[in-house]
Hints:
The structure holds two protein chains of two kinds.
Chain A: H1 3-34, H2 41-59, H3 67-84, H4 94-117, E1 132-135, E2 138-141, H5 142-164, H6 166-176, H7 178-183, H8 188-212, H9 221-235, H10 240-266, H11 269-280
Antiparallel strand pairs in A: 1-2
Chain B: H1 11-33, E1 43-50, H2 57-76, E2 84-91, H3 96-108, E3 114-116, H4 121-133, E4 138-140, H5 146-149, E5 156-158, H6 169-176, E6 186-192, H7 195-210, E7 214-221, H8 229-238, E8 242-246, H9 250-261, E9 268-271, H10 279-284, E10 292-295, H11 304-317, H12 323-342, H13 349-361, E11 364-366, E12 369-371, E13 384-389, E14 392-397
Helix pairs in contact in B: 2-12, 3-4, 6-7, 8-9, 12-13
Amino acid sequence: MSLSLLLQSLILGLLLGGLYALLAAGLTLYFGVMRVVMIAHSAFLILAAYLAWFFTKQTGLDPLLSLFITVPLFFAAGYVMQRALLSRLRPATLTMMSVLLTFAIALVIEGGLGYLFSGTQRRIQLGYSGASLELWGARIAVVKLIAFGLAAISLLALFLLLKKTRFGQALRATIQHREAAQLLGIDTDRIAGFGFGLGLATAAVGGTALALDATIYPSLHWHWIGPLMAIIVIGGLGSIPGAAIAAMILGVTQALLQIPMGTTWAQTVFYVALFATLMFRPQGFFGGRLAQRF
Amino acid sequence: MRFTTIPTASKRSRATLAATAALALASTLAACGAAEEGGGDDEIVIGISLPLTGDFSEPGKGIQRGYEAWAEYVNANGGLLGRDVRLEMLDDQSSAERVAADYEKLINQEQVDLVVGPFSTRLVIPAAQVAQDYGYLFVEPAGAAPEVFEEGFENLFYAAPAVADDHYKLLAEHILSMPESERPKTAAYASMDDPFAQGTAYGLKDALEEGGVKTVVDEVYPPNTTDFSSIAAKVADSKADIVVGGSQYQDGVNLIVALQQLNYQPKLAAFSTAPTETEFAEAIGDKTQGIIAPTGYTTKADYPENQEFVKFYEEKHGEAPGEDEANAWTTGQVVAAAVEAVECAEPDPECQSQLIDWLRENEVDTVVGPLSWDDKGRPQSAHMIQQWVDGEIKIVLPKDQAEAEFIFPKPAW
């Protein structure tokens, strides 16, 4: 193994970890806000990716511009989905029933994409898809760098929103103790709806970032949901910084393990880490107690 | 007895056999009173079961169009042995159990004169088993995976130029015939863990290793892999002279882009399947120059049979035929050649074994060029090699079919 390959793999791992962090952020947020397991999160990622592809195909403009449409659209869709569907589930069985409900939503999205765009595998044709920058002999692909940048900006914005704004305080209060928040005059139902919308808005950004450097097809979301679930459990359910740290570690580990072990075995790192977490620290490595996860 | 010579006949298939023997007896008794169901003197009935619904319905319908076009063409040109060809088609719903039952029905009840194969390895094997049990000739249009030829079938012929391992045969020959100074010295291979895709890349790998081209990377990835940057990093780091992908579609495209991102510039880049798809150029853009792919069929091949087929098919359907249609047509041609030569097309084992023996010994001119087979039914021809030249994919090997010069070394992508 040469030093240059090690450096190259390290860079690829960091870039991949950044993308994982962005894709997982929404998933952990839903759970934090509502104890909802959102199987359809990755289906929304693929939906956003398709919308970015369709936008570029129709207009010839850069897929990043589609964010101006998809982010508000997904935020609204998330709010409606929470208010109209998820909030109607009985609190006692919420977590379990949300799996079934969102599983159904994922199937609807997958079927809809297949119906509208067929099963043909698509890729956004970009002038800069193969372009890269050089750093000490290693290469950094421009599309991966953009995806990483989107991840960094979105996660920072999300963090500031939760920590510094009144809405963020209200959302965190809702997460920590719903009844207490209500006593303080917070409309927790609306806040939960906004929280869900926020999670889905990250899916719009994540899906667009994904579409820059991936070939997409309607059933691709099944490939993503497993690793993303593993990331949020390892990071501590509900913790965005936890998910981000877990994503970076797993991304880098996967890329480095690929050198000696090959692709097939390197993929198992997610599940090995998941088993280890459940055995030794079921609450997640970076979460702490659920109430203090921000 | 033909049955006892089947080395791989499983317990299950023996049980099926016993059951079908009983059924056969019953249906023969029943048939005594009824009119004969098979073709009379004026027509030849060919029995086919196809996956017209279910998983394989897309390619299944392609095969159906090919068979139908072929039958129409034959009938428009005087039929076979002066008799009209009639196709008896059943839908097996892409199910392996169903396809076996369908061929039982075609052979026993309908007493068809000939049978031809369905689509894909998974259905070809059970269908070929039934045909073999009754001593029928079995020419099939799809089923290139090694398993098909390892079952010990004595009646099976694959009607396409080459099995997966031989897809790159012409490319291997071409590389090894280069002068020592130009010949690539190292090669990197990345292939999907799939018998067909991996078979193509490993066929080339075996040939090149034997010819002294050193393997520096040999990566196998699971079919669900979508991120190829790490595999690309290994390939790029090895600085291999050539890169070979045993790919299907998205994996090939993603790997090519990942290699471009690392600014890896090989002298030759060959990928199976992906570069021949219509979506390929749309995905990769203008960075396709010099990419190589083997292909089983192209409308542009100038065998006279192919030109006739393309013309006839286009007149009928208003669009060019694809590989599935061509493979079905080829299957028809192969069966027809045997029938014309032996001058029989009857269900009786005597005639069927004559047809089988004739195909064993002879070469047939088809839309994919002249075909002949080894004793397991593997075609002995080779896939054409195509290369992307100025935004278009063109035949570069074999030389007598070439539309463009083979470009080596490959221009930068």
